[in-house]
Amino acid sequence: MRIRTLGRSGVPVTALGFGAAALGNLYTPVGDDDARAAVDAAWDAGVRTYDTAPHYGIGLSERRLGAALRDRPRSSYTLSTKVGRLLTPYDGGGDDLGHGFAVPATHRRVWDFSADGVRRSLEESLGRLGLDRVDTVYLHDPDDHAGQAFAEGYPALERLRAEGVVGAIGAGMNQAAMLTRFVRDTDLDVVLCAGRYSLLDQRALTALLPAAAERGVSVVVGGVFNSGLLADPKPDAPFDYAQAPPDTVERALRLKALAERHGTTLRAAALAFPFAHPAVAGVLVGTRSAAEVADAAAQFGTPVPDAFWQEARHTGLIGADVPTPDQIPGRSPDQPPGQEAPA
Fold first, then answer.
1. Using one digit for the tens of pLDDT, what is the confidence trace for 128-155?
2. Beta-carbon neighbour count of residue 14 at 10 Å?
3. What is d(CA 284, CA 17) in angstroms, rounded to the nearest whole number?
4. 56 catalytic residue (yes or no)
5. For residue 152, what is the DSSP state?
6. Would you say 139 and 186 are in contact if contact means Cβ atoms under 8 Å apart?
7. pTM for this predicted structure
8. How does pLDDT run across 65-109, given as a tens digit for each residue?
């Protein structure tokens, strides 16, 4: 599997990464054994990049991921977590389904992008992970906290990087506009852009990806299936955490039919698509079981014929100015993007 480094940091990432939100019981419960099996399956598939956050299941994702990785050689994988939400004890009972996680509400999330909050969050994450370091730290969803994130949170991450506590720093969001500001106004190494660079949504192409390429900042793309619609398009499928609009479902179904007509799958095309842009270092796929991991790895290794991309452009399913894998210089037509020999 192809390996790239994040910006100028030297931190390596595999092209396919494991997104661990589901290990925090996102939407539905996941058993401890199934969570461990998912991480083991990812490892067996060659995945060496793992991403989590305190937000995911109010710490459950970090605890499960740390336990599954603890016996692996620490230098053999890259781990990222996030800061911006502190977890404070809560004894009011109930569950966390209001945030989308099927776990007891034993803690509350408190927004905090202060310098002290960033350090405290990282220290608490290391405790839950049971590890002595993480490789990458992202400011997590600072949408409504831009002032503090830029004035205090980002400088705190820069100091942690200078001290050697972390190797790479970045910001992770479900939007492209503020990530573009981070790329242009700071010296971060990577941005994690979720849902804004997919077969159905290319808003990141307007400014974020060109700015990242110009500044030497890596982009990790999350949400390549847009919450599920591109994994299994149907009228009741989710799109960006809500029910998909009918016209978006129709477009996804047309892409699926086109993929099948060319002997491939929509999931394979969705995974391959982001790598046509040179700023993209990898994709993160959220999986909750060994079977889902096996499917993601298989789809990631499935070639998508050049004719699919050409017809998608010709029919307007993909814009004429959107880069597609058939346009990657020197690429072998039967080699899926991201599956080149490690660099």
1. 999 999 999 999 999 999 999 999 999 9
2. 24
3. 4
4. yes
5. I
6. no
7. 0.96
8. 999 999 999 999 999 999 999 999 999 999 999 999 999 999 999
